[in-house]
Amino acid sequence: MIKVEGLTKYFGPRPAVEGVSFSLSPGEAAGFLGPNGAGKTTTMNLMTGCLVPDAGTVTVEGIDLAAHPGKAKRHIGYLPEQPPLYQDMTVEEYLTFAAALKRIPAAQRSAQIDKALGDAAVSGVRGRLIANLSKGYKQRVGLAQALLGEPEILILDEPTVGLDPAQIVEIRQLIAALACDRTVLLSSHILAEVQAVCGRILLLDGGRLVADSSTEALRGKVGSGALELVVPREHGAALREVLRHVPGLSAMTTQPGEAVYTARFQFEGELPGRAAISQALSAAGIPILELKSRQDSLEDVFLALTGAQKEAKA
């Protein structure tokens, strides 16, 4: 569907994007993650022909974007972080203008606009000035623009930035519905949003692609697991001593409470069996109030695989 090979872009002496390669299959929804300045927006601008790469290629439906930009762009709908809206136009006037720019045949424009309005759930405001719309509706109008021409590929850069929680949920549900029959590349700083919509994660750091896999497989790349254990408070010191002898223990944090003592401990490689830990604690006379596995969250993986972790510790 869309293939990126060796994509590189310099701004000055340092590359903003360097050697990025991946491909997206029909019907696939992928999340683009990375800290600020990682190169996500630059990569998206290169993939949509808004910027010209210094090296590398983008192929859309087998069409080289650099050699045949008009043909390739017909397959792509792009929503930049700041939607390119004309505030003094009505929604319908703006979409009519955008349809003309996209060279949609005049005989098809009315039907295309009606469909885009419906798909983006903005039919009810088609006659209103864009300047008078809420931030959430402006995002929807930008999305309707991206849907004109019925592109097979949607590239969405921070589509929920600046929205309130209710608007974020609405846009997220809308994108999930659109992803059912399109290829979607979505960038976001809301990791739960990417996890809810996308089955695949592309993680950029310093202009390089540092991870490309499913969410669950990405968690596994960190190479660690965790357990959380709760015992009566008076057994806290004995618990620490027992855990010191558990193979593979790499880190432990503790939280004494009024009546209980909670320990969260990290392991390199496979988690030890619960039965083995239970037996060790039983032999030491330590009653277990709670013992459960704790999966790394997407936030944990993000920090572990990017420079953001070092910045957080600094």
The span between the termini is: 42 Å
DSSP helix fraction: 25-40%
Order of helices and strands: EEEHEEHEHHHEHEHEEHEHEEHEHH
Provide the β-strand percentage band. 25-35%
- Helix and strand content put the structural class at alpha/beta
**How would you sum up the global shape?**
elongated
The total count of strands amounts to 14
Task: Give the low-confidence spans.
Answer: 308-314
Largest sheet: 6 strands, mixed
Q: How many DSSP helices? A: 12
Report mean pLDDT, rounded to a whole number: 86
Describe this structure in words.
The chain is an alpha/beta fold and 314 residues long. 35% of the residues lie in helices and 29% in strands. The protein has 12 helices and 14 strands. It has helices at 40-47, 69-73, 91-101, 106-119, 135-147, 165-178, 191-197, 215-221, 236-243, 274-283, 298-305, 308-313; strands at 2-11, 14-24, 29-33, 55-60, 63-64, 76-79, 153-157, 183-187, 200-205, 208-214, 224-232, 249-256, 260-268, 290-294. The strands form 3 sheets. Strands 6-7-8-3-9-10 form a 6-stranded mixed beta sheet, with helices on both faces. Strands 2-1-4-5 form a 4-stranded antiparallel beta sheet. The protein has a 4-stranded antiparallel beta sheet with strand order 12-13-11-14. α3 crosses α4 and α4 crosses α5 (135-147). The chain is elongated. The protein starts with a strand and ends with a helix. Residues 308-314 have low confidence and may be disordered.
Write the layout of secondary structure elements.
Layout: E1 2-11, E2 14-24, E3 29-33, H1 40-47, E4 55-60, E5 63-64, H2 69-73, E6 76-79, H3 91-101, H4 106-119, H5 135-147, E7 153-157, H6 165-178, E8 183-187, H7 191-197, E9 200-205, E10 208-214, H8 215-221, E11 224-232, H9 236-243, E12 249-256, E13 260-268, H10 274-283, E14 290-294, H11 298-305, H12 308-313
Parallel strand pairs: 3-8, 3-9, 6-7, 7-8
Antiparallel strand pairs: 1-2, 1-4, 4-5, 9-10, 11-13, 11-14, 12-13
Helix pairs in contact: 3-4, 4-5
